[in-house]
Amino acid sequence: MKGAESRVEKKEEDGNGSAKQQTPSPTGGVTLSGLLNVLDGFYAPTGVLFVMTTNHAEKLDEALLRPGRIDYKLFLGQASRYQKMELYRRFFPEASDAEVRDFVDSAADVRTMAEFQGLLLQLDQQDRELRGSLLERSA
Hints:
The chain has helices at residues 32-40, 62-65, 81-91, 97-106, 113-138. By secondary structure, it is mainly α. The longest helix is centred in the last third of the chain and has 26 residues, at 113-138.
C-alpha cells in the first residue's frame, strides 16, 4: 500500500539472552515469506478472495504463482476505442456521438481502462462543479 508503513521485525538473541536490534525490511514493505503466510499460512483467513495485480507478472516469484495461491489469471490489456466510447457513455449518457468520439480521440494516448476512467472521473467532477456554480448564480 502506498503511504502505509510496514515493518518486518527480526528478533535474535545474542549470547547474553537479550534481543538484538530490530531491522526494517529492505523494501520497506512485506517480505515474500510474509505474503505467502497471509495467503495460506497457519492463520490464513478462510472464505476470503484475494485480488492481486501487477504490471510485471514475469517478475513474480514462482512460489507465489503455484496452483492454490493463484487459481485464476486474467490479462487486462489496452482498452479499445469501442470500450472507451462505451465507458464515456456510461458517465455521460446524454452526450452526442460526436462528443463521445471527440473525447475518446483527444485521449488516444490513454491506454488502460483505469487511466481512462480516471480522466472521466476528473471530467465528471469538473462538470458537477460547473453545474453547481451555475445554479448558485441563478439563485
